[in-house]
Write the structure tokens for this entry.
Amino acid sequence: MKPLKSSLSNMILALLAVAVLSAAALGYVYQITKEPIARAKDKKTLDAVREVVGNFDNNPFAERTEITTPDGKYKLEVYPARENGLLTSFAVKTFSDNGFGGRIELIVGMWMDGTIIGYKVIEQKETPGLGTKITEKKFAGQFTGLNAYDDISLKKDGGTIDAITGATISSRAVIDAVKKVLSTYRKFNTGATGHE
């Protein structure tokens, strides 16, 4: 068989064929991996909910709902935790786009009175060994027991939270994410706990 003559039209056809085959392969891979990736992400979120609210006998995923932050800019997912039908606590999926590496996503657990149980980082791209310390108990533990009506900020900003050394931006991003939850809690609970 005689080899094809090298011409502009032959090169364009060859590139077009490669592009079409590549696009088809990528589309196929996306379709077969989409469901497993979504299931893995949901499991990671549910594990984080379990970690920050403790025991529950309902399916928080089935009961999840969205609430809007007081400024109307964001929607946060709320996962109610029930025991024997009684709502005992809840978890909220929140975020901040102000991390050093971009978006940080957290699951924040709270008792019904607005007390923080804790938080779990579910997504972050912070600097290893510095910003990634937002996942460690030494930093995260400072939020446990704080209330939605407390002023939560870094010590250098007049608050009570010690920043991670060398990772002030990451520390502030976590506070930003938690504050979204707290301000939303206050919006929906005004007067319910004796606070105004």
Notes: Residues 191-196 have pLDDT under 50 and may be disordered.
